[in-house]
Amino acid sequence: MYRLFQHIALFALVASCSEFNFKKTDQVQLFENEKMAIDWNSVDSWPTFESCEGNENLQSRLDCITSTIQQHCEERFQHNNLRQKDTLWVRLIVSNTGAMAMTFAQESDSLLVTVLQECSSSLPKMTPALKRGQPVNCELSLPLIFRTQEVQ
Q1: Which residue among 20, 69, 80, 99 is the one 20 to 30 A from 52 at the CA level?
Q2: How far apart are CA 98 and CA 137, in angstroms?
Q3: CB-facing half-sphere around the CA of 54: CA atoms within 13 A
């Protein structure tokens, strides 16, 4: 009798297990689903210079980055006796380590471009952009307006 009861209980347990839908979750599929949900065209935190870190607003942070680059490079203008006013659109590329490179969107005076390339290599290090707490590469397009004191 006891054995019959064990067999019936075992059979009931096995039969009821089919009612539970145990779905094994594939880690690769979870990862792929998470990647698809992330907007990879935006960042959570913009790259910035240390002096601009207090600016939380996107526009004020971009303005601070632009003015920092302009002020730093205008010193080079004075050193090279450049007397002109020019607006350059630059692509600022900041790596996930904070390394920075500037490329120019349009042709300009070769001396001006040379001075700006020298300037870009001596700019202070930037903190990289962050996406989900991780440093990521980022690219910004900025208008830089350069004028020497004589041209104003």
Answers
A1: 80
A2: 8
A3: 1
Which residue, among 75, 149, 151, has the nearest Cα to 115 in the 3D structure? Answer: 75
Q: Which residues of 61-80 are buried (b: 16+ CB within 10 A; e: fewer)?
A: bbebbbebbbeebbebbeee
Give the pLDDT band (50/70/90) at residue 31.
confident
Distance, CA of 140 to CA of 49 (rounded, Å): 14
The DSSP code for 97 is T
Q: Would you say 66 and 133 are in contact if contact means Cβ atoms under 8 Å apart?
A: no
Structure-block tokens of residue 77: 């203008």
> How far apart are the C-alpha atoms of 72 and 87, rounded to whole Å?
15
Whole-prediction pTM value?
Answer: 0.64
Q: 């064990």: which residue's tokens? A: 6
